[in-house]
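Task 17 of the worksheet. Students: predict the tertiary structure of the chain below and write it out as structure tokens. Keep your answer in the requested format; marks are given for formatting as well as content.
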Amino acid sequence: MINRLGYLLVIGMMFVVGSNIARAMEPADQRIYQQITREIDKTFQNNPTDLQVDVKDAIVTINGYVDTGAQKYVLEMIVRRNSDVRNFNNQIRIRGVKEKTDYSWD
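Model answer:
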């Protein structure tokens, strides 16, 4: 009885984990992810970047750091050129540039 229960729990956990993975990367999202990461790899092949690309419901999020504003611009254009992308959550930062987060006049 305990072995059977343990087996059912394992099967249930596999189903839950498997279904979460399937929802996290739908085929359309996976295609967008592959297109964008392939283009990033091709464009920055000699200049490694510290980036994380995520796609959910055709919304692309890029987190990470680049060395120059030109690199940030190129990454933005790679995403915006993809006609399947619905929206772009740009979290790209330029190394060494401090962001002003406090806009008070004090």
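Marker's comment: Confidence is low (pLDDT under 50) at residues 4-23. The helical segments are 2-24, 27-43, 69-81.
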